[in-house]
Write a sequence for this structure.
């Protein structure tokens, strides 16, 4: 019995040419798939121009508004004052007109200018004394809660006592009139600095205080590097209040002292003008006192902005 042999595959005559033509294409496709395509060139980066912010109009700028708006209100009030005095024909010994007040200011500038310098000198000295004393007392208060509890009521008592009642005693005890008036004005301006600075020194973030304690910082290091930076906004707020109170205290002390001559302040000029019924001169002296108070407040506001403007939120708000 013969063993069967496997039969060879039968290729049809039509499929043979197709297979022959298919083989080169398959080989080309295999070769093309193995060759990596060349990387496409990176597109050139387009230059992006940042649009410059449009500049606000002059009257829309906050700095200009802070100056122009109060000036417009002041001009309107002065115009109303002048119109009422002229329309009602009020005599100068009752209510002088703004024009007459300005004429008197220029005419009597020799006396009013010297008195203004005396009042400003007393105010500045009292303000410096109150600032130094208030900061030192606040540093003492913040070292111990018991010290603050024991001494703070006396600071409040000093604030609520009328300076008019204390000034005669100070003038009697202190022989120098200038020194006595400086002390009186300093007592008036002292409490806001004590209160605000103590509050600022106490207003420390608990996490930062715990971090300083964790690193075993001394009392002096904690005071200089943590408490004082935290208290600066409160301290400058107290300066704004105390600058005006120092001026008020200086004028009150001048009223009580009643010093005349070359060392007389604006308060003495007001008293003398009242005795002589020189009401335009009285109004001119009051105008100088008011402008001095505004200048002191503006100076403290500028100092606050210079010290806190780069890092504190109170001076960086856009409103």
């Amino acid at each position: 019995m013969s063993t069967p042999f496997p039969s060879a595959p039968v290729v049809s005559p039509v499929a043979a040419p197709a297979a022959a033509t298919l083989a080169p294409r398959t080989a080309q496709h295999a070769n093309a798939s193995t060759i990596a395509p060349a990387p496409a060139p990176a597109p050139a980066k387009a230059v992006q121009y940042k649009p410059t912010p449009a500049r606000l109009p002059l009257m829309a700028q906050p700095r200009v508004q802070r100056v122009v708006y109060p000036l417009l209100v002041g001009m309107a009030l002065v115009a109303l004052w002048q119109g009422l005095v002229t329309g009602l024909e009020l005599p100068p010994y009752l209510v002088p007109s703004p024009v007459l007040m300005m004429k008197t200011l220029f005419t009597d500038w020799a006396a009013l200018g010297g008195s203004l310098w005396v009042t400003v000198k007393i105010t500045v000295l009292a303000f410096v004394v109150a600032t130094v004393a208030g900061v030192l007392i606040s540093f003492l208060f913040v070292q111990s809660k018991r010290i603050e509890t024991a001494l703070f009521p006396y600071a409040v008592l000093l604030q609520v006592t009328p300076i008019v009642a204390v000034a005669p005693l100070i003038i009697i005890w202190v022989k120098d009139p200038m020194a006595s008036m400086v002390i009186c004005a300093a007592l008036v301006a002292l409490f806001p600095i004590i209160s605000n600075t103590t509050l600022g020194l106490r207003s420390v973030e608990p996490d930062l205080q715990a971090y300083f304690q964790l690193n075993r910082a001394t009392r002096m290091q904690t005071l200089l590097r943590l408490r004082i930076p935290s208290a600066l906004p409160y301290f400058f707020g107290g300066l704004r209040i105390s600058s005006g109170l120092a001026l008020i205290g200086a004028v009150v002390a001048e009223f009580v002292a009643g010093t005349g001559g070359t060392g007389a302040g604006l308060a003495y000029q007001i008293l003398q003008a009242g005795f002589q019924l020189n009401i335009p001169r009285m109004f001119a002296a009051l105008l100088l006192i008011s402008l001095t108070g505004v200048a002191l407040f503006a100076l403290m506001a500028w100092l606050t902005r210079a010290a806190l403007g780069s890092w504190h939120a109170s001076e960086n708000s856009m409103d």
